[in-house]
Request: fold
Amino acid sequence: MGAFLLARDRQLSIPLSIFVALVAALNGWIICWGATDWFGALGAFTWLPWAWWGAERALSSRLTKWRFLWPAPFVYLLVTGGFPYTVLMLLLLIAWLVIKTLVQTRSVFSVLPMLLGVALGFGLSAPAWLALLDHVQGSARELQSPAAHWQWLFPPAALPGFILPCWTLKWADFSSRYLPHTATELACGLVAPAALIGGFIWRGRMLVRQIKWELVLLLLVLVLCMIPTAGLFRWSFRWLPFFHLVLAICAAEALHGDLGSTIPATAALALTALTALLMLVMRATGSYAFPLTGIFLGLAAIWLFSELWLRDSPFQKWPPVVITFLAFLATYFYIPTNCGVPRYNFSQELLKTSPLDSRRLYLSIYPWAELTYCEANKPQPVGQTLRPGSTPMWAGLRFINGYSPIRAAGVAREFATSIHGEINPDVGSYLLSHQAGTEGELELMGVDGIVVAREVDIAPQPSSDWELVLSTNEGNVFHRRDAQSAPVRSVTSIKSRPNEQFVPATISRINDSRNFVEADVDVPSGNASALLMFSRPYFRGYEARLANQKLAVTSYRGLFPVVEVPAGAHGRLMLAYRPYWLVWGGAVGVVCTLVVVSGFLAAMKRRVEPRAVTSG
Reply:
């Protein structure tokens, strides 16, 4: 819908606006990666056309002074959608609009309404992007191998895939291996690239003058798809949905000037035939070339015939829309939409806590999940015992390892966990052999349950501390023989402070909630303080208070929070998660919300007043 409105505001017809919407919503990357595998990408990219539409309305001098409000809600929705790459797309789009507007108007004031609206959108979403910046610092993602920046680059040799998505060449996958890959994510419905190329052939100079700025953006995004990324970002092919959107707009502008012409349809037929020939010569047919190639040739021929037959007909504007839809339908009917992300047959029993205990804190040790538990290697239901990735959350179970693309500092760095929660085998063996007993790291963290995959074949030591409570074809479950670990514990010593001794404190009435934990604490009088440990992941931003006294919060090797309570202190202790990004970001969000709501009400009032005067 956002792409449709964006096209309509550019004075394109309803059929061409529907054409833009189809390409933006059904292109290969959106279907094969967003809708199939990465829902965060789908949810965030949804709002990019809307943000573009709102930004262009904010630049329009024909609208009222309140036009700066248009981009704000869509920028907010895009940033909070959960896909940082889309924020990069938005920043590039805003920079492009600023440069384009300044060159055309030669006035700095012309871009201020848009920049104000975008700033309000980022203000509304401040807690989201501030949290991302905070969690990334010191994360495993920050220390990722440079090789990751060379994975999933869009190879120039794959360009014919925009015409025939069955074009198959080698791409660098998630493991930097060059494997044959069908260019399904390049699917754009045949019409868009053919119309743009045909427009260049038929009226190149006029088309360049008409959409020169959009062509610059199109080429820039295409280059970004092909070059390595930097910093925290990886997999440059994630720019492709933005490329498809810009391509659709450029193609619609080309079709707008070629209505009634057979040039685009002729170009589509010629390009499809030439691509099919190249596919045979370069041996890029892959597994899905037939019958898809024949179908695309047929669609191009039908388009050409319809342009001749429907000339001077009221349906003359609709063939590009119909051909685009049918091309997408054929593509996803004959080519699988999963392009390289493993699929899993997770058991429906994952919604239940059994056979595990929701009161315990578990560590799960299993091999590389993407290879071991994918449907290709294990078609039967999996996961009820192991709970790989973040599946424990579905049943409210507590695990110290799980899925995280960022792998924030703490367990991820200390235990060398991978994205799907797999602990480095050597680290896992060391933890179970040397750190699972009394005063070991696992006990310090409060781990009182361990799940070990059948493929790993190791048991926690010493065996006198652990009891095998369940053995299935997936793995073994061990529980600590002693009482379950409390979420708040007092210790007399800790390895990170070897020269200090602490007194045991009495802890009672523990209330362990999601964002805070409360407990009554009583420390004996004397010269020694007490040291409290909390079984929850450590992040910067914890605050501790005992009555009205603020206490310092540190951590044990970045794994869990630690609070030192002075001698003789007693009362109700609260440890709460109050990070700066939540406090300050929330304050900025509230202020921006007030500005947006006030502006909206003022704009509505201004629209109502002239009507009232006219009626009077």
